[in-house]
Amino acid sequence: MRVMLNGKFVAAVAGLMMAVAVPVSAFAAGDTIKIGVAGPHSGDLASYGLPSVNAAKLVADQINAKGGINGKKIELLIEDDVCKPEVATNTATKLVSDGAQVVLGGICSGATKAALPIYMDAGLLVMSPSATNPPLTQSGEYKNFFRTIAPDDAQAQLDVDFAIGKLGYNKIAVVHDKGDYGKGFAEFAKKFLEDSGKAEVVLFEGVTPGAVDYSAIVQKIKQSGAQAVIFGGYHPEASKIISMMKKKRLEVDFISDDGVKDITFIKVAGDSAEGAYASGPKDTSNNPLSIAAVELHKKTFGSDPGAFFENAYSAMLAMTNAIEKAGSTDLAALKKVLQSEKVETPLGAISFDQKGDAIGVGFSVYQVKNGAFVEL
Fold it and tell me: Taking the model in full, what pTM does it have?
């Protein structure tokens, strides 16, 4: 539905909103287009969430400087969910109550999954730069969810192929943090290892997030005879585990996911991180839009952008382009644009399939070399 509103259409739209189960978010709702930004903005995982806040601010400022979208300025509603499902539901409720019309986020899969039903009931488009749990799109349950990152099954397959084909290993331990993201990734890795017929999963076990001592799991990895460990989870646990591995002189390769491919992992693990592998979004540093976005971040905030910045920047461009083309924030109208038109972003020219996954994005494997992640 294409809705171009002025004062005389308000009553008609109000009647339509009462007639349908899902509310229509249209420009007449207020003087601004309200975009919610949900993610971890404090705590251990803030390094994943704050880059998205910065991306949202940069895109919004550029659009507002040009007069907004169809005459409406963007207003950001920024809420911290600390990447915890029980907090994310409160965050979602507040954003809906405050009038958010679309949402950038969440960041972590578990928190995103918890919040999505609330956004769906409100009829809001949600686009994540980093929530990779496959069922978020593949289950068909969340009709309002899109993402600008490939799902975990894609990076799990990449990591398994790398461990077997490039590193030549056939005995691999798989460890995870028991969360929707980490365990989901690990289960796919286990499946792909077993299906390959070329490698044995010698250990499959979860650890408790936030634990002080991970010596027990390191001992189990050692006893399993693993040549490498594939870890599903985030950098706080990964940095502790790999540091304990080095302390115990367990010389096996550490391979992980995009939840670990963050500079904070290297800062916390220090020298222990050297040589570790992690999959993450493909390097886009040669894309002119990526170069411009990164330079704008440096100029505005005085620092390099962090994890998922380009994905969040691209999500903001995709959503705002859809709002402009649709002339509305109605979910059905936005989906039609997103699934039929490409938009130029720092990730390249992307569109979305019928499930909500971005077409044209993928993962690469990186290794920590001289204190930095290098794409292999």
Answer: 0.83
